[in-house]
Amino acid sequence: MGTTQPEAVPEPKYWHLKTVLSDALDSEFAVGEILPNERDLAARFGVARATLRQALEQLELEGRLQRRRGVGTSVAPPRMGVAVTDAGPNRPGAAGDAWQPIGSAWEAPPAAVARLLETEPGACVHIVRRTRRTRGQIVAAELLYVPARSVPALAAGPAEDSTAVLHELQALPLDGQDRSVELGSAGADEARQLDRLPGSPVLVVTTRYVAAGRTAAVAVATYRADTCKLTFGESTPPAVALAG
Amino acid sequence: MGTTQPEAVPEPKYWHLKTVLSDALDSEFAVGEILPNERDLAARFGVARATLRQALEQLELEGRLQRRRGVGTSVAPPRMGVAVTDAGPNRPGAAGDAWQPIGSAWEAPPAAVARLLETEPGACVHIVRRTRRTRGQIVAAELLYVPARSVPALAAGPAEDSTAVLHELQALPLDGQDRSVELGSAGADEARQLDRLPGSPVLVVTTRYVAAGRTAAVAVATYRADTCKLTFGESTPPAVALAG
């Protein structure tokens, strides 16, 4: 139907191994089971350690394997569905909010956030740090950026505590919100909160809260990409993991 | 506020280099500019090639760099916002659909899709392959799975062409749709369509179309994670890239 097909791309070495390993996981291993060490696995499949490692990284990316420091590589359970649209019913901090505040600061946001908020470069805003738990596990870390104009009852400057900022946000008449989802890598702080290594792939959800046609607040949430899939929509979300 | 903090995680070697490189990209390079080769870069920053490569991979994950075969590593433009909720107004193939059909097949879907469709394992369904273009570039490849019961006017078996399946889908009264977004890796076919290497990170969007309380069709779309961010919601999406 008239689509140009780019020329065939050579298959990397580890690709076939990944398929073979994936079948072995299905047929020989149970969820949570620890795999043999890399040397034994490489010997069993007759490949170099480097090739094996690439295949394992791939399977980790697809959510099939979990690697934990000091534990080893185990077969991952299916990814948890985490409802993004239900996370903040109307506004951050409202009843039923899935997020727990863990602290706050009065600092200049990154340039990209300042542009969304239409604040001056270098100008300070309230920053509330929050985490989200699903089934007892921290699945996401968030920075919520609130300019002083959105919480006029608070004095500009460090807030007494994070609840004060969230409480004042409740008074703001919000028009709506929009979101983007993109791939990112965990920064040092998020990595600590999510119990991942810095640089681990994460899903970054940026939510813009709109009031009176302007951005009233911006939340940048970092979800673990290994254990979570984000769900959107009215009906019950798909119950299975589907990875490329 | 009573959140357990996991013990501090050691910062990997390449982490500091990544930050330094990121600042250099901001201050010294323009979008599209090709970086010096790895040997020169490693020498300039006084690091081993392996460390440099890790930092470059990280910046690619965050959408700051693009690596193309035979071209080299260049500074990436900001990620394109691709509206997911606008992709299929009500149903696949309706007017305004962002997806172009490129072929169809009559095959058994993967087990996970069969479960969503509630078809027998191994039973064949219509599979329509589609791609989505944004600003002239293919940003996503999709497999749309349609069980025979959802298109009763078509004979079971290979459809005459993909448009026939999409056309018959228009007759189906849909109740709604829900979605999940997760990290995946490009399979060989998607990689070819997206002009990426197999195994490249992708964002996998699974859409379930619901009719009469049942799953009427399932679409599994694979978006390039390097150049796209997915947008959701009513207002104009955030205009800037925000990576971990």
TrEMBL record, chains A, B:
Transmembrane segments: none annotated. Residues 11-78 form the HTH gntR-type domain. Keywords: DNA-binding, Transcription, Transcription regulation. SMART domains: HTH_GNTR, UTRA. InterPro entries: Bact_HTH_transcr_reg, Chorismate_lyase_/UTRA_dom_sf, Tscrpt_reg_HTH_GntR, UTRA, WH-like_DNA-bd_sf, WH_DNA-bd_sf. CDD domains: WHTH_GntR. It comes from the Bacteria. PROSITE patterns: HTH_GNTR (PS50949). Residues 72-96 are annotated as: Disordered. PANTHER family: GNTR-FAMILY TRANSCRIPTIONAL REGULATOR (PTHR44846:SF17), MANNOSYL-D-GLYCERATE TRANSPORT/METABOLISM SYSTEM REPRESSOR MNGR-RELATED (PTHR44846). This is GntR family transcriptional regulator. It comes from Streptomyces luteosporeus.
